[in-house]
Amino acid sequence: MSSPVIVAVDSASLDEAVALAARLSPAQCRLKVGKELFTAAGPRAIEVLQQRGFEIFLDLKFHDIPNTVGSACRVAAGLGVWMVDVHVSGGPAMLEAARRAVDSVARPPLLVGITVLTSLGEDDLPRIGMAGPIAAAVERLARLARDCGLDGVVCSAAEAQYLRATMGADFALVTPGIRPAGAAVQDQVRVVTPADALRAGSTYLVIGRPITQAADPQHALETILDSIAFK
Ligand code: C5P
Predict the structure, then answer these.
(1) Residue 180 in contact with residue 194, Cβ under 8 Å?
(2) What confidence tens digit (pLDDT) does each residue in 15-37 have?
(3) Number of helical (H) and strand (E) elements in the chain, helices listed first
(4) Number of domains comprising the chain
(5) Out of 8, 14, 62, 122, which could bridge 86 as a Cys pair, Cβ 3.0 to 4.6 Å?
(6) Residues 32, 35, 61, 231: which is the catalytic one?
(7) What is the pLDDT of residue 185?
(8) Residue 194 CB less than 6 A away from ligand 1
(9) Contact 206, 6 (CB under 8 A)
């Protein structure tokens, strides 16, 4: 079994990202490259981290017309990333284009969808023309993602519980907002421990600052893996 931990490398430069990667074991985690690092360093960031043995979740949350998202997903898949994501609200044609695009490479990355950003509150939904409540919107979008062949969605641990029950065992649930027991919460509002997130049905745990800002990131990672009895 592979580690469920994906470390969010929210660095502003490739040097910083490499310094972090040098302090982590690729046998015990994957790395998430998001918009900040990718905008700063581009595909070179992925290449360098892969050379160090890490599998990469390229978290660029594509959302555009089907042709554009399909093309971007094809390029991402060609970079050999392990996971890539798109906004489910881009609609079925966009999701199907993304699916076809990632399937065009020999070893397709996992393709996951963003449902409702957890930064949005109930009051925001009508303002962006979305029917609520949030839980219903998340479930509706998760079903659409599954119907269009996506491998899973990014969601909060609170959502993981009912999505696991309704979407079946094979649907990947990628969960941020994770804090080990006793860790600083920072700007996350609702947090759960790694063990609770897995119990709720999460497949992968996205963890940033509790690992990246630890004095010893590898030790922080190992403590988390111990807490979920991962060997
Ligand atoms: O440092 P922390 O553990 O809060 O980092 C979590 C990572 O997951 C960050 O890259 C953040 O942007 C991302 N994320 C999140 N909440 C979401 C979606 C993504 O915190 N709902």
Answers:
(1) yes
(2) 999 999 999 999 999 999 999 99
(3) 11, 8
(4) 1
(5) 62
(6) 61
(7) 83
(8) no
(9) yes
